[in-house]
Each structure stands twice: as structure tokens, then as C-alpha cells.
UniProtKB/TrEMBL annotation:
Signal peptide: none annotated. It comes from Neurospora intermedia. This is Myosin-binding striated muscle assembly central domain-containing protein. Keywords: Cytoplasm. It comes from the Eukaryota.
Length: 709
């Protein structure tokens, strides 16, 4: 690289810098970075400017300009990568990672070659310093260029060489830490994870199982002069931090392995003494104790380990059954820095504890059963600890640990990834009806509405998250009094659009799940019971979809839609606009559908339709339309004859409204009912019914039909 001399940046230097060409700016920045003794803020500033130059370079080269990567030689790459060293501050390492990512994107294949040469050269040198830098670089770039890094990681002889390094008599904590952080990152890649399992599992187990007292005793036995050697004890045993990191790596390996069947000791080919292995349950207990006893120093490792260990059903059950652990994890989440790995890890544990297995259609269940039968070992059989009963019990314990207020607080500063987990956790908690009221009281409704509103609508990644938020909101609003939930900064109308959003099918799936639609209708029905303003908003936003669902080929959906209509027409404004103005063909059609639904096979649908007609028959135009409709009077009398007293109550209420109507409409109605043997039918209602209000309504109807009023 060309030699460039510069002094510390100042206003004059920055002005000169901006006058330089892109290549000269690049060289000047590298000169700054190569100088020693810089403050962190100066280093960060230079790395930031270099990152911007490299990012802009991608677009510049598309326009035919020469790439600045042509002047970035191996020494320059070495400079950037050395800032990834764990001995640098976190802020410097973070900016160096962004700069490395921008360089690799801009430089393409040439950048990959330089990176590979750097890594292999450092490993070949074999000093502790070189190992630390190489391992730190590999750990950082794994998520950036996984294919390239895994190729380096799996290069011949590399992984087997780590065993002797980690088993050296004299330990280097920084080398061990850097090595384990590299393995930790590598375990995200399936082929690398298999290689770690093959070449590193033994010494990882040794580190985790190290008995400190035994190490010290062995040292004094073999070398009595140990006591005179300064630092000899600490340098010949693995530190607690290193043990914790090894446990995390081991957990990632164990979490993806199927449970091993116990050995058949009757088989002569099996060794009589089985090698001891650290199970994932043992590791989870270790992490649990770490978090409870020393959260200040061990929270990162313990949370990361448990985020993987809690994938297993047995571990979930153990963690959820430990109130002390749950409260410690809630405190850890509450104190975690916003958008940090610690926050995401803690949320991942809570998600694993509370997540229900996805509901399957009947066909999916049959396919699953066939797969289970076809699998000789039966590995595809679901774990009973993951059934709904066990998950519900875990959700209750998590809720009782005081998680919800913390979720509400951290959601205000969370990343989209963390907010996704928060919504999924609340969705699981909302499955239990008894917890819905407390969830609303603790701020879950406001959180869910805010999340649905603020997540960008056009981003495909957010589609599922927004639907999940809306469904959790629907469940909570089904079981709570809206008057106690809304007000102040969260008016009731803010909940309507999220609920309407899940009335429609999810475009991202092939098979429609009707549960969100049903729950949305139920929640909207609850809101529609509040006031006319809410009903007006529901009609304005959702009427087209609600009307289509009245004739849906699922009785529960139809019933829920009719119940919503029943509450909507309690508003005179909506009743008149939608049904009572029979001069409009649409209103006539709607009324015909509602009368037909009062004759549906499903009793709940008949009841809901009867309730709506009870409100609508207060209008003369509706009375006239029903009386003149073919089978209209018969359907109303059918409600009166129903075995269900609630339905009879609605039937005689509608009947009384119609026969009590004044003018020509009332006269037509009375004549129609008399011609359909209504008198005898109503007399039977009087004798059959036990409820006083039904009898009174029936008697009044009889008097009006017989002209005795």
C-alpha cells in the first residue's frame, strides 16, 4: 500500500479529506487506522467513514467507476480484521464488523481470498496472539459469510488441532475464550456442528466437567513446588467463564441430537461400562443455578445455553416448575440492554416455555399418524410434555412470575426480532381464558395494538407477526369488558382495524385457518355492544367482509357473524341504513338472508338471527317485508315452537313486535300469522314455557291477534 502520512483528524484535515478522490480517501483512512495510540472515538470515526466508502463503492462500480478495493492490499485487510480482536472494546469491534462486511461485499472473490489467506496464515503461525485474532475473526464473520467461513473451519486438520491446544498444561483464558466463541458461532452451521461433534466433543466435556479441587490436588501431588509458582493454579485450570462457554457449545450440540435410547446391556457387543456424557438436562441445571446465584456475571452464557436447552420438552417442564428461576429470568430480561443478545435470548426461553404445538387439520393429523406408523423407531411421535395441557400449565407459571409488565416495558425499545417474540409469547398466554383479563389490565392490549400499527405493513416478514398480534388481541377482547380496557390514550376504535385484518384469510398459507376469523368476529361483537360510535366504525371498516361471512359454509363462522350483526343493529342509525330501508335492493337482500338464518339448522345461528330480528322488527318496513315474504311468518313461528326457551323467548318477542305494529304493515302481519295457525301455536307456547317473561309476551301476542286489545 502506498505510504500516507497524516496527523490526528481536525476540521481542516476533514475538509481536505473531502476534496480527495475515493481511492485517496481510502488510503488516508487506512493510514489513520494503522497508526497506534488512537482513541476509540477516532478509530470508530475512521472505520465508519471507510464502511460508507465501501458501501457506496458497490453502486459506483455498477456505474462503471473503478472500485476502491483495488488499492486495498493484504496489509489493509489485516488492519481491519485485527480490530475484531476480543481485546478491542465492544464499540470498536462492532464498527470493525460492519466495515468487514462492507469490504467483503465490495471486494467479492478477491476479498474472500484475502480473508482466507489471513486466517490460514494466523493459524499456521500458532502463537497465542495469532490464535486469538484468527478465532475472533472467524466468530465474527460466520454470520456474514457462512459458506466461506465454514470452508475455512472445515479445512483439513484445523478442528483436530484444537484439542491439543485446549488441553495444554498452561491455559490461556483469552485463547480458550476466543476458540469457544468461534465454536459457538460455528454451531449455527449444520456441517460445522457435525464436525464439532466429531472432533471436539471429548475436550468440551472435559472442560465442563472439570473439578477445580481435583485439578489443584493433582497439581500438588505431581509437583510439590506448585505453591511457589506465581499464578500456577489459575493458569492450569479452565476459568468459570470458559467452562460456561463450553457448556453453551455443548448445549447447542445436544439440543439438535435425538434422545439416545439406553444401551442394551444384554447385548454382548455393548461395553459393560458406558462412557459418561453430560446430558442436556445436566447442562440446563448448571445454567439455571448460574442464573440464580450469579446473574451479574453469568447471565449471558446461562441465557444463551438455556435458549437452546429449552427446546427440549423435559427441560421446559423443569424450568417452568422452578419459580425462583422464572423470577430470576424475568429480572434478567428487565435489566437487559435494549436490542441486546441477552434480551433476545431471555425472550427465546420464555417463547420455548409457552409455545403451543401448531394446530393441525384433520388431514394433517392423518398424515402425521401415517408418518409415525412408518417410522420404525417412533421418533416422530409427539412428546406428551408438549401437549396443550402441559403448555397451558407452563403459561400459567410464566404469567404468575410477573412477565407481562416487563414485556410491555421492553416492547417500547425492542428490535423487530424481539418484538416478534414478545407477540408470540402474549399470543400463547392469551390462549388461557382466565389470564385474558389480567393481561389486559397489565397493558397487553395497548402493546398489541401498537405493535400491529407500527410494524410496516408492506414488509412480507411482518405479515405473520401482525396477524399473530391481532389474534392475541382478539382473544383478550373476547373475554374482557371493553369499558374497563379502553380509554385515555387507547380509544376503543384503535382495536377495530387489527381485528378486521384477521377476518380475511392469510394469503401466505394454502389452507385457511378459520380460528382467527371466528375470534375476530367474537371480539368485534363484544366491542359492538359498547356504543353507537363503535358500531359505526365497525360498519365503515368491516361491513363488506362481515356480510360475506353471514353465508360462510361453517356454522360457527355464520353464527359469530350473525351475533355481530345483532349487536350492530342495536344502533338505530345502522339498523335503518342496512336493513330497514327496504326501498333499496341491498337492504331487502340482507333482510331475506337474516330471516333465512333464523331457520338454520344450528340453534346458535337461529338464536343470533332471532336477536337481530327482535331489534329490526321495531321498524314498520321490516315488519311488512317479513310478513309478505314467503315462509317469513312460518320461520318466526318456528322460533316460537323451539324446544329451547331462549329461542322461544326471541320468537315471541319478534311475533309481538310484528302483530303490535300499527298501520297497514301490522294488519298484514296479523292476517298472515292467523292464516298460519299462530293462535294454536302461541297457546302451546303459554302452556309449555316456565319463564314468566315468555308467557307474558305470548299472551299479549294472542290478545292482539284475536283483537282483544
Amino acid at each position: 500500500m502506498a505510504s500516507v502520512s497524516t496527523t490526528a483528524p481536525n476540521a481542516h484535515a476533514r475538509a481536505m479529506h473531502n476534496d480527495l478522490g475515493r481511492e485517496d480517501q481510502t488510503l488516508l483512512l487506512f493510514a489513520h487506522l494503522m497508526e497506534g495510540g488512537k482513541e476509540d472515538d477516532e478509530t470508530v470515526e475512521s472505520l465508519g467513514k471507510l464502511t460508507k466508502l465501501l458501501t457506496d463503492d458497490v453502486e459506483a462500480t455498477k456505474k462503471g467507476e473503478k472500485s476502491i478495493t483495488a488499492v486495498i492490499d493484504s496489509d489493509c485487510v489485516d488492519t481491519i480484521l485485527c480490530y475484531l480482536d476480543m481485546r478491542q472494546t465492544d464499540v470498536v469491534r462492532g464498527h470493525a464488523a460492519l466495515c468487514t462486511s462492507a469490504y467483503l461485499k465490495a471486494a467479492g472473490e478477491d476479498g474472500s481470498k484475502k480473508l482466507s489467506a489471513f486466517f490460514l496464515d494466523r493459524i499456521q503461525r500458532g502463537t497465542y496472539d495469532d490464535y486469538i485474532v484468527a478465532f475472533c475473526v472467524a466468530a465474527t464473520i460466520f454470520p456474514i459469510v457462512p459458506d466461506l467461513t465454514s470452508e475455512l473451519f472445515l479445512s483439513e486438520g484445523f478442528l483436530p488441532s484444537l484439542g491439543p491446544l485446549m488441553r495444554r498444561k498452561w491455559k490461556s483464558r483469552k485463547v480458550e475464550t476466543a476458540c469457544l466463541e468461534m465454536l459457538n458461532a460455528a454451531c449455527m452451521h449444520s456441517h460445522c456442528r457435525e464436525a464439532v461433534q466429531k472432533y471436539c466433543i471429548d475436550w468440551l466435556e472435559e472442560i465442563v466437567d472439570q473439578d477445580t479441587e481435583q485439578v489443584v490436588e493433582s497439581m500438588y501431588t505431581t509437583d510439590p513446588d506448585t505453591a511457589t509458582q506465581e499464578g500456577s493454579v489459575s493458569m492450569r485450570r479452565h476459568s468459570i467463564h470458559v467452562q460456561n462457554l463450553a457448556a453453551v457449545v455443548l448445549t447447542k450440540l445436544r439440543a439438535v441430537q435425538p434422545d439416545q435410547a439406553p444401551p442394551d446391556l444384554s447385548d454382548p457387543s455393548q461395553p459393560r461400562i458406558q462412557p459418561a456424557t453430560t446430558s442436556i438436562e445436566d447442562l440446563s441445571k448448571k445454567f439455571t443455578q448460574m442464573l440464580i446465584k450469579d446473574p451479574e456475571h453469568s447471565s449471558q452464557s446461562s441465557v444463551e445455553g438455556l435458549a437452546y436447552a429449552s427446546i427440549r420438552a423435559k427441560v421446559k417442564e423443569d424450568l417452568a416448575g422452578d419459580p425462583q428461576f422464572l423470577k430470576s429470568l424475568v429480572k434478567t430480561l428487565e435489566s437487559a440492554p435494549p436490542r441486546s443478545p441477552l434480551m433476545y435470548g431471555a425472550l427465546s426461553i420464555f417463547l420455548n416455555l409457552t409455545q403451543y404445538c401448531p394446530a393441525l387439520t384433520e388431514e394433517q393429523k392423518r398424515i402425521s399418524q401415517l408418518k409415525a406408523y412408518a417410522d420404525a423407531v417412533g421418533k416422530l411421535q409427539p412428546d406428551p410434555l408438549n401437549d396443550n395441557e402441559h403448555v397451558s400449565a407452563r403459561c400459567k407459571r410464566v404469567f404468575e412470575a410477573g412477565l407481562t409488565p416487563v414485556l410491555v416495558t421492553i416492547s417500547k425499545t425492542s428490535s423487530v426480532a424481539s418484538l416478534t417474540l414478545i407477540i408470540s409469547i402474549l399470543n400463547s398466554l392469551s390462549m388461557t381464558p382466565s389470564m385474558r383479563g389480567p393481561l389486559a389490565q397489565q397493558g397487553a392490549v395497548r402493546l398489541l395494538i401498537g405493535a400491529w400499527t407500527n410494524l410496516p405493513e408492506g414488509d412480507p416478514k411482518n405479515m405473520t407477526v401482525r396477524r399473530t398480534a391481532a389474534q392475541a388481541l382478539a382473544r383478550i377482547l373476547i373475554s374482557t369488558n371493553p369499558m374497563l380496557v379502553f380509554g385515555g390514550s387507547t380509544p376503543i376504535n384503535t382495536a377495530i382495524r387489527p381485528l378486521v385484518h384477521i377476518l380475511l384469510p392469510d394469503q401466505a398459507v394454502d389452507t385457511r385457518d378459520l380460528l382467527p376469523t371466528f375470534e375476530s368476529l367474537m371480539a368485534l361483537t363484544n366491542l359492538a355492544a359498547v356504543d353507537d360510535d363503535t358500531r359505526r366504525t365497525i360498519v365503515r371498516v368491516a361491513w363488506k367482509d362481515v356480510e360475506e361471512l353471514l353465508l360462510y359454509n361453517n356454522p360457527r363462522i355464520t353464527t359469530a357473524a350473525v351475533e355481530l350483526v345483532c349487536n350492530i343493529v342495536q344502533s338505530p342509525e345502522q339498523a335503518e341504513a342496512l336493513f330497514a330501508d327496504t326501498s333499496k335492493p341491498q337492504a331487502q337482500t340482507r333482510l331475506k338472508i337474516l330471516v333465512a338464518l333464523a331457520d338454520a339448522e344450528d340453534a346458535a345461528t337461529r338464536s343470533a338471527a332471532g336477536g337481530a330480528l327482535a331489534a329490526l322488527t321495531g321498524y314498520e318496513s321490516v315488519v311488512k317485508a317479513i310478513a309478505e315474504r314467503e315462509r317469513g311468518p312460518e320461520i318466526i313461528l318456528g322460533l316460537c315452537e323451539d324446544d329451547n326457551e331462549d329461542l322461544r323467548h326471541r320468537g315471541v318477542f319478534v311475533l309481538l313486535n310484528m302483530v303490535a305494529c300499527e298501520g297497514q304493515a301490522g294488519k298484514v302481519a296479523r292476517e298472515k300469522f292467523l292464516s298460519k295457525n299462530a293462535v294454536e301455536i302461541v297457546k302451546t307456547v303459554v302452556t309449555r314455557s316456565k319463564r314468566r317473561e315468555i308467557v307474558e309476551l305470548a299472551v299479549q301476542s294472542l290478545k292482539l291477534m284475536l283483537g282483544k286489545e
